[in-house]
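Final report, closing paragraph on structural work. Over the funding period we assembled a curated collection of sequence-structure pairs, and we close with a single example.
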Amino acid sequence: MSVGRVAVTRGVLLRLREQIDFVKRGKELLQMKRDNLAAETNRLLAKVGKRHEFDKRLMNAYETLKVAYMTLGYSQVKSEASTVGLLEVRVRPRSVMGVIVPEIVPGKKPTITSVTNASSYAAAEKLSALMGELLEIAEAEGRIESIAQELMMTNRKVNALERVLIPKLVELIRYIDGRLEEETLEEFFRAKRVKAVIRGAK
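Its predicted structure, as stored:
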């Protein structure tokens, strides 16, 4: 911020002091937002961190499904699967510190009682048990993606205020304050000289 063309007046100084107070309050709010978003991200990462264990159980369920395919063949497994209804899921937006994130709302769960073959039923049972956890992980990953973008933007704003705008406002206030002090001293000495001249003239 150039200080060369700034009007050196008490009104400007007052406005700058009000501005820096406003900017500092804004920075504090952004820091609070950043900290809350970081805490939410850490919470979600802990949930996603269980993905490795979940993947193992998912692979185990797929191995059971492979056995069903080898025992019955593709057509028979597909026929058994067609008797099971679809999993009802609704995704709605939710706000976390002003960031819109997805919220997955599970609906009616399909029943697997219509599956008659033992191999197919074993695979369906394992896969069905994992659906709820799969939705939780998908929701957490979707939220992390949205929050991470906002977190980076918020962090950039805090850094810009902290390292650029606030130091420049402080420098400008110091400059105007110093100039006003100089002018006050000059005015004081000028007034003394005028008084001395008037006394001498008498």
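The longest strand covers residues 89-96. The chain has one domain: 10-201. We thank the funder for supporting this effort.
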